[in-house]
Amino acid sequence: MSRKIAVENYENNVLTDATTVVLSNATSVYGIREKVSGIVVVAAGTATTKAATGIYEYDITSLDETLEYEYVFKITRSSGDIEYAEGIIGIVSPTADSSYCDTDEAQSYFDGRLNTDAWDDASGTDRLKALIQATRLIDRLNFKGEKTDSDQDLQFPRYDDTEVPDDIKYACSEIALALLDGVDPELEFENLKMVSQGYANVRSTYDSEIPLEHVIAGIPSVAAWRYLRPYLRDVNAVDLSRVS
Q1: In the list 54, 158, 219, 221, which could disulfide-bond 178, CB 3.0-4.6 Å?
Q2: Could you tell me which residues come within 8 angstroms of residue 73 by beta carbon, excluding any fewer than 6 positions away?
């Protein structure tokens, strides 16, 4: 995917050609680097392309779409003045065929919800991964009706809908939160076999005769399950297969 960055050089409020414009921070360590790890992906001093008077661009296609990058343009003017213009290349939001909601939609949902520390403390990369994984868990369920378009990759929208229902987006967000909080659907499923477990004065007991249907279905959040349940064809017929 092409990721183009650009900078404009103004002198006396007029777009003006600079003497040189390269990618470089003030200490000549990097032109573009991954924000968290600091790995340099474009070296300091890399030339840019003049797109128009006073406008300079750089196009890169080798970036990981799930990571954030920082860049710096070094602008040298005819007067000898030097300006450094910094910027961020953000994470690419999930596409329609990878997640039911993007990170902005999930954030809007969590803005009205308490106890979202796991989401709040997560990196943009992990939030994105959690939403994509949540979508995969949702799409393993047996839903009523048919896909709106038989060629669409995801289970929703369905019937004559053209958009994914808000309930499905909320469920995706809740599952992502649970995953970020360390809930493992496979471990939860295995724990259905446990009758009693104790630690100090705290004891947990599970009645194997009354299994938790959301756990059987591979959904790690009961809140998400409440959003999903009305859309299911038969809550008693869930996919129990597990992948290694």
Answers
A1: 221
A2: 5, 7, 21, 22, 23, 48, 56, 84, 85, 87
